[in-house]
Structure formats: C-alpha cells, structure tokens
Amino acid sequence: MHRFLTTAAAILLPLPAMAAAAPAPADPYMARVAKVLAATPLIDGHNDWPEALVDHAGDKRWTLDLNRLDTKDYDTDIERLRLGKVGGQFWSVFVSPALPGLEQVKATLEQIDLVNQIVRRYPQTFQLAMTAADVRAAHKAGKIASMIGVEGGGQIDKSLSVLRAYKRLGAGYLTLTHAVTIDWADSATDNPKHDGLTKFGETVVHELNRLGMLVDLSHVSEATMLDALAVTKAPVIFSHSSAKAICDHSRNVSDAVLKQVAANGGVVMVNFAPNYISEKRRVWGAARGAEQARYNAPPFGGLYIGDPEKAKAALAQWEKANPEPKVTMSDVADHIDHIAKVAGVDHVGLGGDYDGLPALPEGMDGVETYPKLLAELMRRGWSDADIAKLAGGNILRVMEAAEKVAASMRGEPAATETIAQLDGTK
Questions:
Q1: Relative to the CA of 66, which of 6, 88, 158, 332 has its CA 20 to 30 Å away?
Q2: Are 310 and 353 in contact (CB under 8 A)?
Q3: Rounded mean pLDDT of 36-46?
Q4: Which residues are identified as catalytic?
Q5: 272-292: b or e for each residue (b if 16 or more CB lie within 10 Å)?
C-alpha cells in the first residue's frame, strides 16, 4: 500500500522535481584528476599549518587530534588532506621576523620539531621526505610526503652554521626574506636597503646550492630575485607567489622575472591569497586599511581615537558602501594560465599558503579543494600531462636538479664567512 502511494506520488511529480531528485552524473574532469594524482603526487609549496597549530592550540599542539579540526580555525587537517589528494607538502616553519635573532632560531627549531612530531604521531598518513625519490616513495606507499620550508632568512640569524643545522634537521628550502628587509636581502614588502642581495646574501644562496636546499624567492624584492637568479647554480622556486601582470602586488612575479625563471629551470608556485590574486581586491584592501587608520590609529591618530566602537561602526558603514570584491577559483586559475603562457607549463606549480591567510577565494576554503582547481584547468583545455606537471612534476624536477647541483659541489668546503667579513657589518 505504502509502496503504491509512493510510486503514484512519484508519477504525479512534475518533471523538474523528478530531475532534481536524480543523482548528478559523475564529473568526467574529476575522474581525470583522480587518475593523474594516482600517478603523480600533488605537491604544495607552502602551508602554514604548524604556525596555525601554535596560534590556536598553544601547548596542546603536541597532542591535539589532527584528523578533523574546526574549519573556522584551520584550513588543514588529515581528513581534508586526503579529500584533496595531497601527495606532498612543504610545511612552513615560520616565526615572526620581529623577534630577536636567537629567539627566531629557537622558535624555528620548535616548529621543525612540531613537524617531525606530527609525522611520528601519524605514521600511516605522513612520511618525512628530503629528496624527490623520498617523495615518490611516500606517494607510492599512500602517504603524504612531508618536507620543511624555513620561511625567512632572518631565521638563520646571519649564521651559515644555523643554516646547515636546519638542513640536517630536514629543511628543504629557505625563503630569503619574509615581510621585512634583513641585513643581507631586501624584502618585497619593506623599504630596500641593499638593491637586492649583499655579498653575504650571495654566499647564502651558494651555500643553499651546496647543501641541496632550494632557494625560495617568495617575499623578496625584484632586485633580490634577479640577484639570486644571477648567482644560483640550481633552479629556484617561488613557494607561494603569483603573477604580477594580473595583480600588481609587490609579492608577485613580473613577466620579466618569469622569463628568467624559465631560463633558470625554476618554478613559480601560485599563491591563493585574495590580495595577490585580484587587482580589485588588492586596491580595496589598501583602501580599507587607509579608512581603518583614518578612524582609529593609536596612540595619536584617527578621527575617533579613543572610541574604538565608534571607529568600528564607521568602518562598517564604509564597508557597506564599498563591498569587498569577490575572488574566485577562476581568478586563481587565471594566474596559473598566465605563468604557463609566459614561462611555460614546465615552470608553474601550486603554493596555496593555506593556514597563513585571513581570507581565501570562494570555492577554495581548504586543502580539500585542489582537485576542483585542477578540474577547472582541464575545462580550460589543460591536458592530463600538463596537469601532472603543475600538480607535482615540475617541483620534483626542480628538486632533482638541486640534488644534482649539490652532488657536483660535494668537494667544496662549507662556507664559513661571516656577514662582518663579507659586508663589513655586524
């Protein structure tokens, strides 16, 4: 009786309702993505999960269950990494460049230890990787290859010995600067002091080559990029940067530099930060920051200084009149397309900067969304072979090339010069 009523009711349903109830056909692009990522590990160049764990979990970070985390606080957890088919990750061990040098070193060591402890606690999920062969072996075993990136030259405290110690502890790259210019390299987001690299900075690049660590040029000024490209013996990376021709942010890579990256054999791994992806969003963000300072800029500035609630209400009114521009997955794909067009498909990768951003593009809320991005590129005409290069093939090639350079420099002694000897500074 009930079965008959159900069937009859179904017959009486209008056709659109019937269609809505039917399961959607499988996305053929997602099937292609799955096939590509089964053969080639998807490797992201930069994820700030260790820092996010420090910020949100504090001392509990050492024992916190990492399988499923609150999506309001984290872009990353084990379940989401698996959904995103992530095969390899450079975990950023970032510490504030505002800290004194020795404190930066201590905090960096603790971050490196945190990555190692995560791998030790979840051996069925993660596997430490130092070489391209290690990454491939981890992927073959169904694990996420875990590499380490030190995100700021200040974190070596002007000591090549500290750099070598990081290498022995598993560091795979050094970002030459972060947000501020340091004693031997100019940052993209600070006033320049050196017109690029100093002699000590050039020695750091040479020592990275000798050690087999990747030279990471995200966050550095264009002059620093060009100096590093001029002296490096190995391909460079930009672990999380995008295309300056599309979004004119100083953190992004100009077409002139993209062409040099191609000649160098390096790779630019595209960042997902809205301010680096959308020119409209970049301009809006600067305007919002100016409005915020206009209303309340302690200790002396602002129309409503000393009245934070009034300043907050005024900013809300400004935001209502000036809504934030939307940034989408399609905008991210535009950067990937542009870098592939200018530098070549062999020189572009993924560097999402997850867990390091205050906002993300629509549709890219966490590490689970990589397959959707790759499917979007397939819809634009990308072949499976080119998707494999973007996803992981290009960075694996760069890692292998850096390993060969290090092998060719094996007979060289370790660099021991100090910044005082090379640059005449302390």
A1: 332
A2: no
A3: 98
A4: 46, 48, 151, 178, 219, 240, 353
A5: bbbbbbbbebbebbeeeeebb
